[in-house]
Amino acid sequence: MxxxxxxxxxxxxxxxxxxxxxxxxxxxxxxxxxxxxxxxDVLVFTTLQPIMFVLLFTYVYEGVIDIPGISYTEFIMAxxxxxxxxxxxxxxxxAMAQDLKNGIIDRFRTLPxxxxxxxxxxxxxxxxxxxxxxxVMIVAGLIVGWRITTSxxxxxxxxxxxxxxxxxxxxxxxxxxxxVRSPEVINNAAFxxxxxxxxxxxxxxxxxxxxxxLQTFAEYNPVSALVLAARELFGNxxxxxxxxDVWTLQNPIATSLIGIALMLLVFVPLSIRKFGRVSxxx
Length: 282
What we know:
The chain is mostly helical and 282 residues long. The protein has twelve helices and no strands. Helix 4 runs antiparallel to helix 6, helix 4 (90-102) runs antiparallel to helix 8 and helix 7 packs antiparallel against helix 10 (222-234). The termini are far apart.
């Protein structure tokens, strides 16, 4: 008796495996990189925003804010790196919200690909954007007088730590992008998270200069640990800088790595689960 083949069911996925997962992830990553290439506005703002922050804080505020033992330019660069990396991670949230509105996510779910690969491709796009931003900021920083005074390997470790933090934060933004009601809301929702994380930290001024409750928030703010870790790895900590009173800032590199691990452990599975449940919004 002849067997009649049935059409594949909607949402059927190939057997999962390392090779399949890598292939699917690379395919979705290429999709997002092509989108960046075809939307030059993304690249324009990716390069202009870091330059604007470097020039603004080094030339406008350097004469106003005094950091004993070091120029404000050297002090501020790690903060600008961290702020730009965190803000750059919002592309995942915006893209996921837009794809959800356009029905792209529903189409992805009908394809025989891994759900996690789609999200990996999206967050990899953020990693590329943040890498371009880092290159621009480093060049701009060198022009205005910033220098890495430690070894090459420590400098590379600082850059890698910043990019890894941004990658982990992209998963937070991807989850947020699938949780908001419309793409128009994502920027406002992200700002509520990003504003206190970046400005209520030691990115622009020493945390000990902040008033009581804000100082406490800054000391336990993961961005503060990231900024201080970058300063240590770049050799931009002022001589005689007072020893922090809290463990998070006494061990900024370890704190940053713990924060990265927690974001990935929590938001990777949450985002994958959310991806499988959300539906197109009209």
